[in-house]
Amino acid sequence: MDAPKLNRSLWLETAEPRYSRLAANIDVDVAIVGAGITGVTAAALLKAAGATVALIDLGAVGHGATGY
C-alpha cells in the first residue's frame, strides 16, 4: 500500500494559532518581521537572553516560505 500523499505541507496543516492585531502601541527591545522558522528561532533566542521581543507577520506563524 502506498503512503498517502499530502496536498499541503504538514507545516501549513498545523500552523496555528492566528493572533489578533495589536490594540495599542508597545515598547520592545527587538521587533522581528517574519514569523517563519528563522524569525521564531531568533525571537526565542532573544527572549531566552532577556530581551523583550515582538514577532510580527502578515499571516499565521509558520506560513509563507517556511510552510513549503
Summarize the structure.
Helix content is 25%, strand content 12%.
Which labels suit this protein?
68 residues, single chain, alpha+beta, globular, 2 helices, two-stranded parallel sheet
Report on this structure.
It is a single chain. This protein is α+β, with helices and mostly antiparallel strands and 68 residues long. 25% of the residues lie in helices and 12% in strands. It has 2 helices and 2 strands; from the N terminus they run αβαβ. The chain has helices at 10-14, 37-48, and strands at residues 30-33, 53-56. A two-stranded parallel ribbon has the order 1-2. α2 links the parallel β1 (30-33) and β2 (53-56).
Indicate the radius of gyration in whole angstroms.
15 Å
Low confidence ranges? none
- Terminal CA distance: 26 Å
What amount of the residues lies in strands? 5-15%
Number of helices: 2
Strand order of the largest sheet: 1-2
Helical fraction equals 25-40%
What is the N-to-C order of secondary-structure elements (H for helix, E for strand)? HEHE
**Integer average pLDDT:** 81
Give the strand tally.
2
How does the major sheet shape up? 2 strands, parallel
**Helix/strand/pairing class, anyone?**
alpha+beta
- Global outline: globular
List the topology elements.
Blueprint: H1 10-14, E1 30-33, H2 37-48, E2 53-56
Parallel strand pairs: 1-2
